[in-house]
Amino acid sequence: MMLNKLSKLFLAALLSLLAAHSSATYDVNIPQPETVIAHQIYGLHLYVLWVCAVIFVIVFGWMFLALLKHRKSVGHKAEQFHENTVVEVIWTIIPFFILVALAYPATKTVLAMKDAGNADMTIKVTAYQWKWEYDYQQDGIRFFSALSTPREDIEGAGKPKGNYLLEVDNPMVVPAGKKVRLLITSSDVIHGWYMPQLGVNQYGIPGFIKDAWIQVDHPGTYKGQCSQICGKEHGYMPITVEAMDEANYNSWVGAQKQKLAAATEDPGKSWSLDELKVKGGQVFAANCQACHQANGMGLPGTFPALNGSKVVLGPQAEQIQIVLKGKNVMPAWGLQLKDSEIAAVITYTRNAWDNKTGESIQPSEIKAARS
Questions:
Q1: Rounded to whole angstroms, how far apart are CA atoms 120 and 181?
Q2: Backbone angles phi, psi at 181, to 5 degrees
């Protein structure tokens, strides 16, 4: 009776696996490598895999042969190897040579991964909760890259499409065939800049700068993610690297410089309340909504509500300092946002939902608060 039940359970499990296999394809290998280092990692992976396979066949083959040919039922008597010097030397020397055979290519690959010298260009990568900042040291270009998947898709209201949870608003762009040095750090907690096709998985650690390098062989778009559990939105922190040929890359650099010049604001401009509320709503949706929610009610026990908040409805200076410097798990937005963006989002929170203060904060006030 018990065997019949077990056989039925086994059959049901087998059928479910077959059904799952028929409806989805599972890739069990390393993604297609696209850099010199990624090719070395891929080759090392296969090499170690074959060494393990050979060891498996030899060890288990020998073991099963011994069980078959030297079993007690055929009258074989057990051999005694206690304190046999020859046997002990053999099972010491063989593993030693196996370790050397594995360590030599692994060491070459690790040393190559750390050799970021003689680079054609340098990009500083700074991690934030939960986005990336790319600062092109030679070109004077600096921008943030964050998840662009609509919030309604994440929360189940929309229909996921495209590269779900891997889409970004501003990809990191590099010239194909050029060696790019990456200086990776973090502003808050430990993050991981992980690009499997490019052979990089480097931690970003607050207060430290770690370097890595990439040299993408072919133009294309490559996807990655943060590899360290870094907080509530860890799963929504993708990375996209787009490699372009030299002509297209130079055009992109020119366009980025024009974009930065166009975004330069008059520091003496006085913004109207309506202008600040519109801009603040956009800044809030892009940076604050994930924790404090679109209705300003937050997440009870985790993130405080802004609707009716004593801080939001209290003295302006106190709220400005919290937004600039952060508090608890809230990041220091002063490191990420411009004066006008901080002024706008504070104005928005003080006049949105049930908060009707009628107050506006000017960028000049944020500039003064920074100092």
A1: 8
A2: -85, 135
